[in-house]
């Protein structure tokens, strides 16, 4: 009987050592699914394309203000413009009025073009603004219907903003019934 207890004890010990082996190469980090707020609003039919402007005589800083429901990071900026060219894209903290990132992105005539950036940590509840400086743009829902605020996944788009001219200026007023341009972010929420 004593021999059986020793054999069972050794068997249990051996099985526990085998099942508890540690191999760090097998550990997988699961990252949250990336979110593209404006792309999602368009694909979900929340906003609809109504017109296109190419080589408009006026240039604007066009974009949208948003907040997130979770902390996370912005890892890419993107544009969709109806002409092939290079455009300045800006990313702002609205609450502090700090310009966090500026970059040039080359468009692919009507296709969504994203460029990776060094991740920018963002905080839930803080207002941010992403914009493109352009005279080529799409017009969405110009019928006067209220579009914003609009929620998609972990992001609340608060409104559309524009500043007339080529200067890199954060708009001070926001519209809830239209959206011009097509600039976007790649947001990865924290788990």
TrEMBL record:
<dbReference type="InterPro" id="IPR025141">
    <property type="entry name" value="DUF4082"/>
</dbReference>
<dbReference type="Pfam" id="PF13313">
    <property type="entry name" value="DUF4082"/>
</dbReference>
<protein>
    <recommendedName>
        <fullName>DUF4082 domain-containing protein</fullName>
    </recommendedName>
</protein>
<keyword id="KW-0732">Signal</keyword>
<feature type="domain" description="DUF4082">
    <location>
        <begin position="53"/>
        <end position="163"/>
    </location>
</feature>
<feature type="signal peptide">
    <location>
        <begin position="1"/>
        <end position="21"/>
    </location>
</feature>
């Amino acid at each position: 009987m004593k021999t059986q207890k020793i054999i069972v004890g050794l068997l249990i010990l051996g099985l526990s050592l085998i099942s508890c082996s540690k191999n760090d190469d097998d550990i997988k980090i699961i990252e949250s699914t990336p979110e593209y707020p404006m792309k999602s609003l368009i694909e979900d039919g929340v906003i609809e394309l109504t017109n296109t402007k190419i080589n408009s005589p006026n240039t604007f800083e066009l974009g949208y203000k948003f907040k997130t429901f979770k902390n996370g990071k912005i890892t890419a900026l993107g544009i969709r413009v109806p002409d092939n060219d290079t455009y300045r894209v800006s990313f702002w903290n609205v609450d502090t009025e700090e310009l966090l990132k500026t970059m040039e992105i080359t468009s692919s005539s009507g296709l969504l073009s994203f460029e990776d950036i060094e991740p920018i940590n963002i905080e839930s509840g803080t207002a941010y603004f992403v914009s493109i400086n352009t005279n080529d743009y799409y017009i969405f829902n110009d019928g006067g219907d209220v579009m914003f605020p609009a929620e998609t996944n972990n992001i609340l788009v608060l409104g559309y903003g524009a500043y007339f001219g080529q200067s890199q200026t954060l708009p001070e007023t926001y519209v809830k019934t239209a959206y011009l341009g097509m600039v976007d972010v790649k947001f990865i929420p924290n788990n």
